[in-house]
TrEMBL record:
<protein>
    <recommendedName>
        <fullName>DUF3782 domain-containing protein</fullName>
    </recommendedName>
</protein>
<dbReference type="InterPro" id="IPR011335">
    <property type="entry name" value="Restrct_endonuc-II-like"/>
</dbReference>
<dbReference type="InterPro" id="IPR024271">
    <property type="entry name" value="DUF3782"/>
</dbReference>
<dbReference type="Pfam" id="PF12644">
    <property type="entry name" value="DUF3782"/>
</dbReference>
Length: 195
């Protein structure tokens, strides 16, 4: 039996109603996506804000360590027989074409010796490796120290034992907080590497 006009009309109404329901569900889904997107953007904004805040704190902690170490290095290195005439903070060098540069947190000098010190709130193996690479470039980027004995040191408030051992084996002086003082953790058998 062939569909009647009424059957076809009913079918069109059902299809139209189904289409309206589908469109309503699409609008609801679109609103949910928009809300999710808004939440993602807000989360991204909060993460960026927290990163800036923590980055600022990390820089401040590094400055704090530098300020703790700076007055102690004169006493510490003199006790190891190394005269200290100058202690300079945040010394930077860049090559002539600007393609390479380094920054040394503390540079300790006398008339023949320079010691580059990397200061961190918490020292990692990567920090030590980066400092070793920095020391390799030092005399090339600071030609005024080409005739100096160059040595290196690392200093930290938090210094895991394995990191301290690694730095020691690489020929670096290891300075760490002990109570309210800064100490050189290298024993009397230590011979610093010279670059």
């Amino acid at each position: 039996m062939a569909p009647t006009y009424e059957d076809i009309l009913t079918l069109f109404r059902e299809v139209a109603e189904s289409q309206k329901e589908t469109e309503r569900k699409f609008r609801e889904t679109d609103l949910k996506f928009q809300e999710t997107d808004r939440k993602i953007q807000e989360t991204d904004r909060l993460i960026k804000e927290l990163s800036r805040t923590f980055g600022g704190w990390s820089n401040r902690l590094g400055e704090f360590v530098e300020e703790m170490v700076r007055p102690a290095v004169v006493r510490l290195f003199r006790s190891r027989g190394l005269e200290v005439h100058q202690v300079m903070r945040d010394v930077t060098a860049i090559n002539d074409d600007g393609t390479e540069g380094i920054e040394v947190d503390l540079l300790i000098t006398n008339v023949e010796t320079a010691i580059g010190v990397e200061c961190k709130s918490r020292l990692t193996l990567e920090d030590v490796q980066e400092h070793l690479a920095r020391l390799e470039k030092f005399k090339r980027l600071f030609p005024q120290y080409a005739g100096y004995r160059l040595m290196g040191a690392v200093a930290a408030m938090v210094l895991p034992d394995e990191v301290a051992r690694f730095a020691y084996r690489q020929g670096l002086f290891v300075l760490a907080q002990s109570g309210d003082a800064i100490l050189i953790r290298n024993d009397d058998r230590f011979t610093p590497k010279e670059w």
